[in-house]
Amino acid sequence: MSSMAKPESFVIAVEEAVLDDLRRRLAATRLPDEIPGGGWQYGAERSYVRKLIDYWKKAYDWPVQETLLNRFDHYRVQMEDIALHYILQPGVGAS
Questions:
Q1: Domain that holds residue 40
Q2: Geometric angle at alpha carbon 16, from 10 and 29, rounded to 5°
Q3: Which of 21, 53, 71, 82 is the most buried if burial means most Cβ atoms within 10 Å?
Q4: Domain count, the chain
């Protein structure tokens, strides 16, 4: 029987350089032409994807989301070839 890896707690902390890289890649995104009359039949409409990219570039506030996520207890453990990230949050209320 193999020994179990011990979970380790951690806090989500994305470096600003990672966020800067994401913003650069979003700014460099090239979208394909839409298929005339295709609508959502062949994937997301170009106008929707463009709005989503603009939101991520200009409006999404990662530090706020990071703070919200870090209200929970985060753990990670290596299980064979899988790096597993999980949240351990006991329930509240009557059992």
A1: 8-87
A2: 115
A3: 53
A4: 1
**Mean pLDDT, range 44-63, rounded to an integer:** 94
Q: What pLDDT was estimated at residue 26?
A: 95
Q: DSSP string covering the chain, please?
A: -PPPPPPEEE-----HHHHHHHHHHHHT--PPPPPTT-TTTTSS-HHHHHHHHHHHHHT--HHHHHHHHTTS-EEEEEETTEEEEEE-----S--
pTM for the full model?
Answer: 0.71
What value does the mean pLDDT of the chain take? 91
CA distances from 47 to 28, 51, 53, 82 (A): 16, 6, 10, 37
pLDDT at res. 59:
94
d(CA 50, CA 28): 12
Is 2 within a domain? no
Does 94 fall in a domain?
no
